[in-house]
Write a structure and sequence with these properties.
41% of the residues lie in helices and 19% in strands. It is built from 8 helices and 8 strands; from the N terminus they run βαβαβαβαβαβαβαβα. The strands form 2 sheets. Strands 2-1-3-4 form a 4-stranded parallel sheet, sandwiched between helices. The chain has a 4-stranded parallel sheet with strand order 6-5-7-8, with helices on both faces.
């Protein structure tokens, strides 16, 4: 019997975890699999071990494991596979196939454009966007993030979309804001590329208060969030996983 185990990141802020669970509950109806469980990589429960065990206890013989993450970095390549490897030792008879984060997808670009429009601020011709990522030392993340920024500029009709990060790599948020403030753009839409609310969103909100000036407006858009379009991407990924000829060793393909 097939099962899907959704692995969310986890947060110290309860609302962030609640948003993840609510998103999975909404998505389940689109996915025709009898067993579907949610768990967290860190900072919350159920853990990966607990989630895996729940699938097995309900009769799962094959588990599609899907990381609910935006981009492919250390969590998807190392941390989650390591945790699954530990659990798998106790259930060697279970077949495991492993998916990928949401990655670069035009549906995500559509969400970003929607978030900007939700600010209800009239977009001027000389507006720019500062796309703020969580950050990773993995070069693949920067490459993918740059690709998303380019697609946003093209599809959203912006003259310029710049990128910065909250941690682990450069340019940092302060660098991005400083560069934007020294530009000739009269509007700067600051767009957090985050799945859930929490400490990082609060950090952006606090910092942004310092940058508005008469000749240049900084507008904070809402974070990406668990949009319904992500459910569509998730559905496609689960179907692809379960229709593949993968085997249990797929979980190690990033290692």
């Amino acid at each position: 019997m097939d099962a899907v185990l959704y692995i969310c990141h986890g947060s110290r802020v309860k609302k962030g975890c609640d948003q993840a669970i609510e998103f999975i509950e909404r998505s389940k109806s689109k996915i025709d699999v009898p067993i579907q469980e949610v768990c967290f990589l860190e900072l919350a429960e159920p853990t990966i071990e607990q989630g895996f065990k729940r699938c097995v206890e309900q009769g799962a013989t094959r588990i599609a494991i899907v990381p609910i993450l935006l981009l492919t970095a250390g969590h998807a390549k190392v941390d989650i596979p390591e945790e699954i490897h530990k659990v798998y030792q106790h259930y060697p008879h279970i077949k495991v196939v492993y998916g990928t984060p949401f990655g670069v997808d035009n549906q995500i670009v559509d969400i970003l454009i929607e978030r900007i429009k939700e600010t209800e601020v009239t977009i001027k011709k000389d507006a720019m966007v500062l796309l703020v990522g969580r950050g990773s030392s993995d070069p693949e993340v920067k490459k993918d993030f740059h690709e998303i920024a380019q697609r946003l500029a093209h599809k959203g009709g912006f003259q310029h979309v710049d990128t910065c990060y909250l941690a682990a790599t450069t340019p940092k948020l302060l660098d991005g804001l400083k560069q934007a403030s020294e530009s000739n753009y009269s509007q700067v839409f600051v767009l957090p590329y985050l799945l859930f609310t929490g400490i990082l969103m609060n950090e952006i909100r606090t910092e942004l208060k310092k940058w508005n000036k008469a000749e240049q407006e900084f507008i904070l858009a809402n974070y990406l969030g668990y949009h319904d379009r992500l459910s569509n991407i998730l559905q496609n990924q689960v179907n692809k996983l379960l229709n593949s000829q993968g085997n249990e060793y797929d979980v190690y393909r990033y290692s």
